[in-house]
Specification:
7 strands, globular
Length: 327
């Protein structure tokens, strides 16, 4: 069963693999950029961002020379902004090294690059015999081999990593890694997988035992929390007040209007209870407008900028949504 697994996937990939622009190159910069963007992001959305980054910063040296604000602004709308900060930091690491590291250990030393991303870059750009293990791979392997060990446990991670590596054809690591990822994204999907048209159906344990919708198993660990925010958009003589969010909280490094605990006098409610869903929390925001001829007393970390420049600052998606209510 295992001996045929890789060859069947490779045959399927040659006929059904996705035509993605970062696959038309072995440039480690283009491949690394795609992998970072596609963390927590679907290909359809990430594609446009990849093209925009490649147009603006076609080489890693260009990205390294940019400011963090410029990178965050270009990233705006993708979420998980730590990825953008790590991307920028790693670009400067790479330039400092004199180029991309070509070993798994070297790739893992880059900020924001873990085992999966190192294996993806290493195999696709440099032909390193390293198996990738992402959500698609977990799903394909769990179903095909009937593994019910939770994928988000230490035991599960070790089990799947070892199995993935044992299945990897060393001389075709790049094609195989892309094949199994595409197979999970197109064929063995989370919902309504195409089992009746699957080239692996005869050897799929989950299909044989009726457990396709039960695998992979994921242990529930995190509880979604709710958080309530009150924002006041202060407009004074053509300027608005904003501040950059600090470390240790959501949206680190992004900008936002005045965040308050108590609504100031004269503020007009624009919208109440705007809901914004993040991975582990649900935000509810009340949004107010305060138009005044005298600047209110604000904390020291707030700055006043021309309102016409507001769009030049990197904002969380929630703040974009709130400010759209003003137009």
């Amino acid at each position: 069963m295992r001996s045929d697994f890789a060859s069947i996937l490779l045959t399927w990939f040659r006929e059904n693999g996705r035509d993605l622009p970062w696959r038309a190159t072995h440039d480690p910069y283009a491949i690394w950029l795609s992998e970072i963007i596609l963390q927590q992001t679907q290909v359809k959305q990430g594609w446009d961002y990849w093209e925009r980054f490649m147009r603006r910063w076609p080489r890693v040296e260009n990205l390294a020379a940019a400011t963090e604000d410029e990178v965050l602004r270009e990233w705006q709308g993708l979420g998980y902004y730590s990825r953008a900060r790590n991307l920028h930091y790693a670009a400067r690491q790479i330039v400092g090294m004199g180029g991309f590291p070509q070993t798994l250990e070297g790739l893992r030393s880059l900020k924001g690059v873990g085992d999966y991303t190192a294996a993806a870059i290493g195999s696709i750009a440099f032909g390193l015999p390293a198996a990738v293990v992402d959500g698609n791979v977990y799903r394909v392997l769990a179903r095909h081999f009937g593994i019910d060990t939770p994928i988000n446990t230490t035991e599960g991670k070790k089990t799947f990593a070892a199995l993935a590596q044992s299945l990897l054809p060393a001389k075709e690591a790049s094609a195989y890694n892309q094949a199994i990822m595409d197979f999970g994204a197109i064929q063995c999907t989370p919902q309504s997988p195409r089992c009746l048209l699957c080239p692996l159906q005869e050897t799929c344990d989950a299909l044989r035992t009726g457990r396709v919708d039960q695998l992979p198993v994921k242990q529930k660990t995190l509880k979604v929390k709710e958080r309530h925010l009150i924002y006041v958009y202060v407009r004074c003589k053509g300027k608005v007040a904003i501040h950059r969010r600090g470390e240790g909280d959501i949206w680190q490094g992004l900008w936002e209007p005045w965040l308050v605990n108590t609504v100031p006098d004269g503020a007009i409610l624009i919208k109440q209870g705007v809901k914004h869903v993040l991975t582990h929390r649900i935000l509810f925001a009340d949004f107010y407008l305060l138009e005044t001829d005298e600047k209110p007393q604000l904390p020291d970390d707030y700055i006043w900028i021309p309102e016409s420049d507001f769009d030049n600052y990197a904002l969380p998606r929630l703040i974009e949504r709130l400010c759209d209510l003003l137009s």
